């Protein structure tokens, strides 16, 4: 019954996917498992992919299955709670239906509310309880439900953006943060429950310690609907259309109030005005259309941006009113009009464009959304055109309706889940990409591109892990996350004990290779079969080295299968992690240089051998001085171009022998430059 109502307006394919997801999640709950216990799971979606729709479907299906109380932790700010609550109530038809199926009580507290809920349950209602993710509100709810529900009433708890305020931010100290402790109290108050965490950034929940109450015992991967545009579409597939790099100097400094708008921000506003005018000229049903300016978390800086943008819009409005032709519009608007139409946006004739620009400027509604402003709700229905200036309040979970242009000059966070959640631009915009522009600094764009690899690597490897029947909890210890350089998955206060393998440490040397004859023979055969012994010599300055280019998958296999280099065999050498890192690069077909390092006469290099450490100074340094008319050798560490591009993967095969006769026979050993990415795993459970 609830499923039919909640799926109004959805295609049959979308309905089927939603109910399949809901059924899979509910199959882990106490009603499906035939016991009165509890279960905690993770529903993994994508940023702005329709998680609220999936939550609505789950709630509807749970009501049909027999869950009598549904708690929805739908936001850590009143702005977000109100937005999500309204969408839930509208989708479920609460307040407009005539079957008296639902009762809605927001943030209930006190004995009177407990009695009221008990009364509704006795009358066969399903009680929906949206609650602010705040310790005091959750504590009050726990007391109410403990009295109203007892031990037999099944409860579904939906925790949206579960990786944010819900987790224990005192994990490293042994204490418990207030919201985390309150959630523990809520779970204790209703012993028969299913607790489902929804998030698009699951890094923290997946890395939790084994005894953490919020560590998921199952994971369900939500699939975005047709036409979804996320990180891959924005920053990889269609980056030439969407991405606009702004100068690093335009990054907002922490303690500086802007006195004028930067050229790049004026350009972004021009793109928004031009794009909205073109969009409305060809698509009357497009509104609302929005722009987001995200510069800082500081309220005073946001207020200054609000003032400066308002002044710009007033000046442009007067200029547009006075314009006799479209050619007299501000140059920034005209430049962006040409860019958008060149990229595939529909053109409008000059008269229509001028008319629409005047309309857009007259309707442009500017919002300042932060804790210091009096805006408690963005009313999308008061105007067709909106510009939002804000920071953290417009960050995680908040949906900016019709967002086309994003200007983000806030310094890039090194925390993956935080930066990824700032990408409010994602959504169902496949047919709007020419109008969608994402302005950000090169550092922010580089990390957002790297997150794409992290996101898809996580899903692929987690799915493989689960399909093999392995426990969710072991994934973080055995597989872990592939991170962009210079980043961390989440707050250190949430995840205290992580093991990090950082490829950005430079060259990884197998200094102490196996001396066993069978291992030496197998490795020599692998080098020969790769074709390195007959590869052409390339000029590296004073020295020439045989060099070939092989697909990365073949290079990774060489490292993985190298004989006699297991754990502890050589100081600092981590063969399994290196191979893992190479195998997890997104483009396994990329041609990777493999270089044979040997004596110029074609024989082995001689190196000092230390019984404990292996070869000393395995890599040759740069020439000590430059001489006229003599090629200069930059050293082994420069071979392969890694100084110019530290993200490159390069493999060196060193042909060496000990300098002391008879101590170590001639053999091959490896030196690997694996790029800049990092693998983070949870420290062993002990």
Task: Please explain how this structure is put together.
The protein is of the alpha/beta class and 686 residues long. 36% of the residues lie in helices and 19% in strands. The protein contains 21 helices and 25 strands. The chain has a seven-stranded parallel sheet, with helices on both faces. Strands 16, 17, 18, 19, 20, 23 and 24 form a seven-stranded mixed sheet that branches. Strands 8-13-12-9-11-10 form a six-stranded parallel sheet. β17 and β18 form a beta hairpin. α20 (552-561) runs antiparallel to α21. The longest helix has 26 residues, at 442-467. The chain is globular, with a radius of gyration of 30 Å. The model has no long low-confidence stretch (mean pLDDT 90).
Count of helical segments? 21
Strand order of the largest sheet: 3-4-2-5-6-1-7
Helix content: 25-40%
Bulk shape = globular
Separation, N- and C-terminal Cα atoms: 48 Å
Low-confidence stretches: none
| Computed Rg | 30 Å
- Which structural class best describes the helix and strand composition? alpha/beta
What's the β-strand tally? 25
Features:
7-stranded parallel beta sheet, 686 residues, 7-stranded mixed beta sheet, 36% helix
Fold topology:
Layout: H1 2-6, H2 12-26, H3 30-33, E1 38-44, H4 51-65, E2 69-73, H5 78-92, E3 102-104, H6 111-122, E4 126-131, H7 135-149, E5 155-160, H8 178-189, E6 193-199, H9 203-206, E7 218-221, H10 231-237, H11 239-242, E8 243-245, H12 263-282, E9 289-294, H13 299-322, H14 331-342, H15 350-363, E10 364-369, E11 385-390, E12 403-408, H16 416-421, E13 437-440, H17 442-467, H18 472-478, E14 481-483, E15 498-502, E16 507-509, H19 517-530, E17 537-539, E18 544-551, H20 552-561, H21 575-583, E19 591-597, E20 605-607, E21 609-610, E22 614-615, E23 649-658, E24 667-674, E25 678-682
Parallel strand pairs: 1-6, 1-7, 2-4, 2-5, 3-4, 5-6, 8-13, 9-11, 9-12, 10-11, 12-13, 19-23, 20-23
Antiparallel strand pairs: 14-25, 15-25, 16-24, 17-18, 18-19, 21-22, 23-24
Helix pairs in contact: 2-4, 4-5, 6-7, 7-8, 10-17, 12-14, 12-15, 13-15, 20-21
